[in-house]
Amino acid sequence: MSATKHESWVALMEDEKLVEVMFDRSDQDRLVGGIYLGKVEAVIPGIQAAFVDIGSGKAGFLHVSDLDWNHDESGETRSKSGRGRRDRRFPAIQDKIKKGQSIIVQVTKEPISTKGPKLTTQISLPGRFLVYMPGSYHVGISRKIEDRGERSRLRKLAKEVLPQDGGGIIVRTVSEELNRETFEKEFKRLSSNWTEILKKKDSLQAPAPLQREASLISSVIRDLFSSRFECIQVDSKKAYQEIQQYVESVAPELKDRVVLYDGPTSLFDKYGIDSEVQGTFEKQAMLPSGGHIVVEQTEALVSIDVNTGKYIGKKDPEKTIFITNMDAAGEIARQLRLRDIGGIIVCDFIDMESQKHRDKVLNEMKIHLAKDRARTKVSDFSRLGLVEMTRHRVRPSLFHSLTLHCEHCEGGGRVYTPETVVRKIERALNRLSENEKEKRVLVRLHPGIALNIFEKEPDFLRNVSRSTKLRVALRDDPLLREDEFRILSGTAETDVTSRYASM
After folding, report:
1. Tens of pLDDT along 247-282?
2. Dihedral through CA 247, CA 248, CA 250, CA 254, nearest 10?
3. Which residues contact 253 (CB under 8 A, 6 or more apart)?
4. pTM to 2 decimal places
């Protein structure tokens, strides 16, 4: 985990391979998980949906299937005879909500491209061990808790602790061997939280936030950190102390697995994470066998093509193709997680004559996809030899979060956002300060980026000079691209950009 004043990054590694990257910036609001008092802007009977203003710019989309039919608009619970969330025969949405009405909603998907956030009125409040659903009567156990005896014990415990009409819960994976005292303590905290949200609602006028989701690092520790992790390394003292305090209260046995990193090089550089993230912006990803996959993202879907590349095998072409496809199956699953690709995905594997080989390749992909937190559905090989799948995503991909459409190429090109360029400059200067004796540095950059710094971060030069002990100056250069910059070191102004600039 890497955190600064302006951004936080979390990188997950499995078997010494980077598999997932998440980031959060102070200039970008994280909406997913947030609870809002929204105002219904329009109800559209034709598509059985409503558009709700939550104060985020773009109106949120609320489908009839995401309405909570067990609650009225005041938040009060109705009888159990109401329709459950799994019942697909819903009454008309116009019978439930009206234009101008104020309703409590939760964001389930960030705005992506031209679409606003996706909303639900089926509220869920996540804790370390439980997810509390005030509008549900369902008691669920995480599928990853496989022991039948433990599942039965947890279900019985949940039903004993839950008061009548007290809502529903999902017992999370880290709750194995959870005792009654901890269960009751967390349930009480979550249900009290819901009561406070309802009280807050009465004093506000829509649209207004009722509860923001936890910060990125806090939510990752809450949702993911367990005994399955060998360790968590953090390069920020403030974040480290916050994590230690939280872990001490919920899982003290894991406290020693949280480590404060203070090495001579940056934490992400040590593990090569920056360069791997940079690789996600390229279409091609190499395979261990020598082949490669090509990832093409379009508005409608993502296509992934598998090629043998330099790998030509020895004598058996079918075996060569099978080995390449098996490598590709695992790498495709990793790239989907790493790039956080969502929507419709079509994989064009190299044609295989053997049905046995096709089954093995498909099974290999499913094994790797099982590690993915995002819901993925995979079809069998089609008559054309394609594998189609869908992957659920709740926020824009890394590629779309860090880049903008290029205004000049009039094609599908993209450039880094101004905020991303500024952070790239900052990281490059940190690396330079660790390796160069020269203390005088000139940064040449596009006028648009310079303007962005002076308007949004007027203390940038002072802060970066203080943290790096460098004498940094900026000079705008209209001949540079919007996302291009040059770092010139010393009085001779030696260009050292290639040495220190990456992600």
Report:
1. 888 888 888 999 999 888 889 888 888 888 888 888
2. 60
3. 227
4. 0.75
